[in-house]
Amino acid sequence: MQKLDRSIVDGPLASAVWKLAWPTMLQNVIAGLQGIIDHAMVGHYVGYTSNAAIGVSWQIFLVVIVFIASLYSGMGVLVARFAGAGEPQKVNRVVQQAFITSIGLSVILAVAGYVLAPYLLDVVRAAPEVKAAALPFLRTMFLGNVGMLVFFMIGGAFRAAGDAQTPLRLGIAATVLNAALSTVAATPSRSGVCASPAARNAPPSMKKTSMPTLPTNIVRRNGSAAAFTSGAARTTSSR
Question: 201 by DSSP, 3-state: which?
């Protein structure tokens, strides 16, 4: 643990609050961009049904995020106490215990989330086509929750110790990486199938499906069938 910046506790209160607050505020804004990037990519390359599936999944997963934030608030109190008292060994012990707890909790959440995902989607009464697209995505989020838990833990520990800029750097790096991977995943493949940020996190069965949940409306007119899928029309001859 790096040495505590004594200006936070010994200097003026207003400047100390602002020194901790502005990196946290900026980090939260940047973190919000990750969801916007995913929605934008899915909306442009997959369709509105998959976009709705991401929104439903995130609303359910927000319960997990709030629970995690509450858990690490307790860790932050202990880290701040020991860091202010100049006891780095105790700070390290608290962080180590929080890390072990995060690993164990991630396993529990992964198993419980994978099993309960269909029932959680039924609770919000998601439409059948939205549920079909949301289920693999939500399960993948639960299975990969360990990264988010560790990120929350590290960020909370640094902020509690008086360093709010390191979590900001980590947040910027995560957002840039997310944007890069989303852009690569959304590039059309040779077969013309467009991947998406949602498909990037989903099982292979979703990744190889082109616009899997978009309804196709057939309008028959003068012996022709106009098939409209996601705003793109093609006309096929019918006998």
Answer: coil
Tokens of 144: 């990969």
226: DSSP letter: E
CA pair distance 36, 32, nearest whole angstrom? 7
Give, in degrees to the nearest 5, the angle at Cα 6 between 5 and 8: 80
Instruction: Give the pLDDT score at 108.
Output: 93
Domain residue spans in the chain? 7-211
- DSSP annotation of 224: E
Q: Helix or strand or coil: residue 100?
A: helix
pLDDT tens readout for residues 83-107: 888 888 898 999 999 899 889 999 9
- Mean residue pLDDT across the chain: 74
The conformation of residue 237, written as its DSSP 8-state character, comes to E
Neighbours of 181 (CB within 10 A): 14
Which tokens in the block code for residue 96?
A: 């180590």
Amino acid at 190: R
Q: Please answer whether residues 217 and 225 qualify as being in contact, where contact means their C-beta atoms are separated by less than 8 angstroms.
A: no
pTM of the full predicted structure?
0.65
Distances (CA, A) of 193 to 52, 81, 189, 201: 20, 54, 5, 16
DSSP SS3 for 228: strand
- 234 pLDDT above the threshold of 70: no
Q: What are phi and psi of 96, to 5 degrees?
A: -60, -45
**Higher per-residue pLDDT: 68 or 107:** 107
Residue 90 burial by Cβ neighbours in a 10 Å radius (0-12, 13-18, 19+): middle
Strand order in the sheet with 217-221: 217-221, 224-229, 232-237
